[in-house]
Amino acid sequence: MAEARTFQLSMSPHFGSPQSTRRVMYDVVIALLPALAGAVWLFGFGGALLPVLLSVAAAVAAEFVCLRLMGRSTSAALDGSAIVTGILLAYNVPPGVPWWLPVLGSVFAIVVGKQAFGGLGSNLVNPALLGRAFLMASFPVLMTAGWSAPFEWRNPSAGFGTSGMPAAQVSTLPEADAVTGATPLRAWKDSFAMDDHEGAAVRENLSTPGTYMNLLTGRRGGCIGETSIVLLLLGALYLFVRKVLEWRIPLAYLGAVALFGWILGGPGFLEGDALFSVLTGGAVLGGFFMATDMVTSPVTRRGRIIFGIGAGLITIIIRRWGGYPEGCSYSILLMNLATPLIDRFTRPRMLGEVRKHA
Amino acid sequence: MTRLRTFPGGAHPDECKELAEKRAVKRIPAPETIRVALCQHLGAPSTPVVKKGDKVTRGQEIGSQNGFISLPTHSPVNGTVAGLEEAPLPHRRSGPVVVINTESEEGGPAFEPWPDFESRTRAELIERIKLAGVCGMGGASFPTYVKLSPPPGKKIDTLLLNGAECEPYLTADHRLMIERTEDVASGMRILARALCVDDPAVGIEDNKPDAIEAFGKAGIRVEVLRVKYPQGAEKQLIKAVTGREVPVGGLPLDIGVVVQNVGTAAAVALAVRDGEPSLRRIVTVSGGGVREPGNFDAAVGTPFSALIAEAGGYGDDVARLLSGGPMMGLAQFTDAVPVTKGTSGIVALTSKEARRLTEGPCIKCARCVDACPMKLVPCLIAVNSEHEKWAAADELGALNCMACGTCSFVCPSDRFLVHYIKRAQDMIRASKRSKEA
User: What pLDDT, on a 0 to 100 scale, did the predictor assign at position A173?
Assistant: First the structure.
């Protein structure tokens, strides 16, 4: 009989899937790239590419320094999660802001939003959104004024019309005064402050097939990464195929934005525009890439639906009655905070479990 | 073909069955020295009734039943008892074993063969299955006769044979089903008679078309199951075939179902029809770490090392040695452990096949939640376990985890979820015991 041989012990299972956190994160990075190409096309290298690169570099550097100071393995700085945070932060600032703004936002996102809570997996809220909220609170003028219009970088004469659409597209408006710094959502919101007739005309102009087309292709004012809807959808499709993205949160969120946008988003009850609500602001970027942040969204299936609907409702409430024209990022941050509670109350029915009440 | 049945949740690990599934079962003689564990099964170990120097014959009782959830143990060979000792075992750290020096394996039946089992009473059949030491051959090794003796008031209406064999690498049940179809079929009829059940069925995953065909030809109802891990888990098999759910904390018999592994059914046939106690079993020896994977009919008590030698010996790279498959199998620290009635396979994994042993933080991706076949929230139970919040883990249903490993398998951070949940189970049970005391 052969001599007995000894082996390493370990807990079952002894098999693992080839999935890794790194692969998940880099898949998200890949999925965000088409929208970056779109942003460069719309806002130029200086307006879009530079802020994104700086933001990513700052996020990775901040992660590295934090890990170093805490005596942890610094290789985690390149696990992809800091890159995702850096990209998303930059996507949420207006094109053409000073170079230090996304850098500052990224550092805040990583240091305060993520590492202060214990690093990857431990943060309560989406770090990129927290970084954006910090910038909004600290530099409100830089963050909301001075929107550059699409293609302005190639044709400086292109300006904004009242609707937030490039002037060329709104020339049919009765009074096309050149208000720069507008986004379609700002125009929508401002319309409620006008007299009834004027406001209705603005909204009517925003609810046309032509406008929808412009919104889909990104020919409107907005943050760096939020306007190229088609390219964002392309990235989301990639994540679905790679099974990184699960349909519940995006569908619940965008469905709720559409539904509540129609019910509450207009001048009166049921007078809103569902499609406009979904295609403007950061709804698509938020619904597919930020509300779906795994760490800060519920793990249960019912929880994901509740999370999406809650964020959609809050988005519309802020858009209609809040102080900002766009409520996407705050709605997600608020629902992030509710996530542990949602998970707790939506535990799935175990196999063979009989619940006393439904 | 009938439509494929399945259960919610689960995962698709590489099946890796091609290594051994075409290899016919090879009967190997018992080696010079065998170590027969007195705790082959769940429950109390049998009490040794032989001592050092005793001559034993094949089929002779060497350990007597010790309580309700216990079974007698038999010598698989003719030989001499070399001693009684505490030895490492594949399914627990160690236990009492009878060491026997083998002389031969000849000999007639230990009990009167009953080819006419139809004319035997239920009680006679159950008694025989008990005396022959038959326990579950699928892994958990529960004494079979206990499952055939439902408490009064529980009506059993369904008998399912488990031929799913969903663990990667393992092909022992598959070979059994195609090579010894008649044994399984006879055992099924005996079990059905013992339970007074009509129309029993066997559940087989659709990656074993030859087994499905063999049972079809034998006139047995086959429920074809979709290939998905853990289809062979009792509760998942019942859910897939009958749609019924075993109540939380309950047993299959609470919903009128008894599940028996196909290997158990074959052992039942040998016990009743041929008068043979449970002395041997089919063991798959596979994995990238053995040179010639195959299926072997080995005597209980055969050391793993002897079976590895039969399979051509170890390859150059063996990272892990397992009793059972890679999902639920137990890592062994030595290959000196003996085959027991529950040893369905011996798998030697290379470092490439074996799971990484470095874990990352939970990113709450919820893949474990979507995959858990028991519909638990593994990531949250694990976090509570890590922080020693046992009550919170209990509230999340930690005790319902069957440690199938699907959660850890799908986890992109390679978290030791099963480990954390099992730890929580131990602590919750300990605290419940101390409260009762």
Answer: 39
Torsion from C-alpha of B376, B237, B43, B377, nearest 10 degrees: -10
- Same domain flag for B269 and B371: no
pLDDT greater than 50 at residue A175: no
B257 and B372 housed in the same domain: no
B159 and B268 share one domain: yes
Res. A282 pLDDT band, cuts 50 70 90: very high
In angstroms, the separation between the Cα of residue B182 and the nearest Cα of chain A is: 34
Q: Which chain A residue has the Cα nearest residue B347?
A: A14
Give SS3 for B260.
strand
pLDDT tens-digit readout, A205-234:
888 888 899 899 888 889 999 999 999 999
- Give residue B429's domain range: 367-436
* Best CA proximity match to A290, nearest among A35, A118, A53, A38: A35
Identity of residue B92: R
- Are B364 and A121 within 8 A, CB to CB? yes
Q: What is the ipTM of this complex?
A: 0.90
Residue B425 domain-assigned (yes or no): yes
Domain count, chain B: 2
Of A12, A23, A299, the CB nearest to B418: A12
User: Which of A7, A16, A246 has the CB atom closest to B331's CB atom?
Assistant: A7
Distance CA A213, CA B13 (A): 45
Q: Is the pLDDT confidence value at B191 over 70?
A: yes
B361 vs A contacts (CB less than 8 Å): 119-122
The answer to the question of residue B192 being in a domain is yes
Domain boundary among B273, B303, B331: B273
Mean pLDDT, rounded, of chain A:
90
What is the band of A3 on the pLDDT scale with cuts at 50, 70, 90? low
> Which residues of chain B have a CB within 8 Å of the CB of A353?
247-248, 375, 397
* Whole-angstrom distance, CA of residue B299 vs CA of residue B84: 18
